[in-house]
Amino acid sequence: MSQIPFGVSHRHGFDALTCALAEQRALELFDGELGDGEVTELYAHLHNCSPCRARYSRTKRFLAALRRQRRCVPNAPIHLRARVRALLAGAGTGGSGAPRADAREPSTLHG
Known about the structure:
Layout: H1 19-30, H2 36-48, H3 50-72, H4 78-89
């Protein structure tokens, strides 16, 4: 199986996508940014191009592992989240850039 490096513009005779464009489209697919026609075009390319199909599978597994890992990270304590939100919003800083001592996280904000 020949490997085509990322970014190389290689076009097969059987489809309209280059491998570089297929790589870009795959990332857009993972981000939910492709229309139906583009998805069909990408899947046709992946069906016929084993290097791109292998790269797609590796990327898909990597992103799934990243999502699983992200779910395992514990949430910050409530008082820390409140303090960070106050700093980001500029709320309760009194011009000093530091949150007031009485700044609390609203009960409607979770996780």
